[in-house]
Amino acid sequence: MEGSLARTKNSSGRKPFWETILPEALTASQWEALCDRCGRCCLEKLTNRRNGKVYYTSIACALLDTASCQCRDYRHRRRMIPQCIQLTPANLQSCRWLPRTCAYRLLSEGKKLPVWHPLVTGNPDSVHDAGISIRGRVLHPMPPHADDLDAYIVDWDIWSKKARVE
User: Fold this and answer.
1) For range 101-124, the mean pLDDT
2) CB atoms < 10 A from the CB of 109, how many?
3) Which of 18, 33, 64, 136 is the Cys-Cys partner for 5 at CB 3.0 to 4.6 Å?
């Protein structure tokens, strides 16, 4: 993470970029810096059609590095995984599957970043230390039949009281 993007105390008392710049006006590096590297958006998800609730599974994208919680080939991921969604300010509202703790989602809802977010702490491991990421979780390969995904729904308590955002 670029040190210049992390929140630091400065003598000018200026607010960090994510509190002053609208998502559509962010530079590419600022936009990418908002990602906390939790890896949850790279898990297979199921959505209840009746109530819209999203259920995460223990099945991760084949490109997800479970140690770093980042894509192994971010630049070329859409060639290898065509269904991978390029998150942008324009499509953010339609991505209701993003975790409630996701910075992109929070900022689009007018909320602040959580205290454990790497931009707030200046520490890229703070997301893992807070128990928000998928690091250390038991993950599974994609089952041969998509109908079997419900057997992999997880409740890892990744939305613990410590992790919740206000």
Assistant:
1) 94
2) 11
3) 33
